[in-house]
Amino acid sequence: MPSGAALSFSKGQPARTAIAGGVMQPVNIIGAGLAGSEAAWQIARAGVPVVLHEMRPKVETFAHKTGNCAEMVCSNSFRSDDDVMNAVGQLHWEMRTAGGLIMSMADKHRLPAGGALAVDREAFAESVTAALTADPLIEIRATEITELPTDGNWIVATGPLTSDNLAAAIRKVTGTDALAFFDAIAPIVHADTINMDVAWEQSRYDKGETEAEQRAYINCPMTRDQYEAFIDALLAADKTEFHEGETAGYFDGCLPIEVMAERGRETLRFGPMKPVGLTNAHKPDEKAYAVVQLRRDNALGTLYNIVGFQTKMKYGAQTEVFRMIPGLENASFARLGGIHRNSFLNSPTLLDDRMRLRPQPNLRFAGQVTGVEGYVESASMGLLAGRMAAAQAKGQDLAPPPFTTAMGALIDHITGGAEAKTFQPMNVNFGLFPPLEDVRSGRRGRKDRYPAYTQRAKDDFSSWLAAQ
Ligand SMILES: Cc1cc2nc3c(=O)[nH]c(=O)nc-3n(C[C@H](O)[C@H](O)[C@H](O)COP(=O)(O)OP(=O)(O)OC[C@H]3O[C@@H](n4cnc5c(N)ncnc54)[C@H](O)[C@@H]3O)c2cc1C
């Protein structure tokens, strides 16, 4: 194990709390990362005992460097702290308002970073570890859990690098296809920023029983010159490398578009960009040389993903290259593409809205393994799972926050709003929020729309908290 503080683990019997009529059984959490740490804190704040099982430092991952709780494995940023104009900033606000440990320690160890919330990662993780270790209701055990318990009140928060043994146990319960080991994320576009004077709605060969199905895709046509320029830009773009320990061999089924382009200039035109079975609604007599298709990504219809466009291009390069696509010149991206080692469930089919595993409801999932992506999103799902598990331990039920809030929008997306067939991890973004009437759409309307979303979210989140 490389240098870094290691946990001091408490030993002995699990904490138990006396309640009228007996002893309250602890909630068990697997994984003391961003989500598990926040969940443990929330449960203890509710007066319920917790046992937190963490495999590090005994069992290592390729990305973690210490034995600390809540270690940030890559960047030291919690992204934008603007709670008026930014959905991540709004999520910060909700976590602070709910007394979140992760946000309070991030604030304590904040570094200068303009509008972003960057933290001193070591001091941050050490403080989280110290706070959890000092709490009399929390017991931390240095153990790898390799089987899924069939009873009790458990939270699985094992993250993108869930250990192989546990992943195998999860797959036994969920089925092999329901727990992915890698994400392959195609960029996602805010629907109201697509230029429909250029693009049109149509499924290939008009397939589908209903009109909605026959118009399920948005198509962006390219001339030969546009296609050639696009391929040149793809080949020249800056790419990110796989992290040490990630294996590129897993990606054969979903190659990055730039790798497809490297295999031959025509590969994409015979792959995801094939122009067959489509008629340009604006120019029916003109045959496109290539077509980029976008598919609906959420039930609200506010987000569309670019089909087959998973990529390892750097973010700046992606925006530049994808805006070359006719119809996407002014596109605003809810998230950009990526491919990473990432264990995550097909949550829309597997989790109920209390984050419980449908086939085995004594297990609640939290954090990145649920299909959210990023430190803040993962910690926020830990916060919710912790509060729900604590309510359950007390014989109560806690409903998720309304989906007009950042946390509510995220949990709604992963447990039902997202398309299950194409489910890939998601960051929080305004495309997940239910649209407001009487507010301008499109990129130009953002100045009015975003403050309206965040104000509504603050009001609704405060009411949700006050009702507990
Ligand atoms: C290489 C890499 C780079 C990343 N870069 C960024 C970034 O720059 N910015 C960003 O926002 N996000 C990044 N992420 C994602 C980020 O790591 C996650 O969003 C976040 O850590 C998820 O929190 P979590 O609690 O769900 O998982 P984690 O923080 O990973 O915590 C899970 C914990 O579970 C433990 N565990 C796993 N299996 C078991 C088991 N069987 N028994 C007991 N314990 C177990 C692990 O040791 C770990 O401590 C990156 C992820 C990876 C893999």
Automatic annotation (TrEMBL):
One of its GO terms (biological process) is tRNA wobble uridine modification. It is found in: Cytoplasm. Keywords: Cytoplasm, FAD, Flavoprotein, Methyltransferase, NAD, NADP, Transferase, tRNA processing. Its main location: cytoplasm. Its EC number is 2.1.1.74. Pfam families: GIDA. Belongs to the MnmG family. TrmFO subfamily. It catalyses: uridine(54) in tRNA + (6R)-5,10-methylene-5,6,7,8-tetrahydrofolate + NADPH + H(+) = 5-methyluridine(54) in tRNA + (6S)-5,6,7,8-tetrahydrofolate + NADP(+); uridine(54) in tRNA + (6R)-5,10-methylene-5,6,7,8-tetrahydrofolate + NADH + H(+) = 5-methyluridine(54) in tRNA + (6S)-5,6,7,8-tetrahydrofolate + NAD(+). The keyword Plastid does not apply. It comes from Paracoccus amoyensis. GO terms for cellular component: cytosol. NAD-binding protein involved in the addition of a carboxymethylaminomethyl (cmnm) group at the wobble position (U34) of certain tRNAs, forming tRNA-cmnm(5)s(2)U34. Catalyzes the folate-dependent formation of 5-methyl-uridine at position 54 (M-5-U54) in all tRNAs. This is Methylenetetrahydrofolate--tRNA-(uracil-5-)-methyltransferase TrmFO. GO terms for molecular function: flavin adenine dinucleotide binding; tRNA (uracil(54)-C5)-methyltransferase activity, 5,10-methylenetetrahydrofolate-dependent. Its cofactor is FAD. PANTHER family: GLUCOSE INHIBITED DIVISION PROTEIN A, METHYLENETETRAHYDROFOLATE--TRNA-(URACIL-5-)-METHYLTRANSFERASE TRMFO. FAD binds at G31, A32, G33, L34, A35, G36.
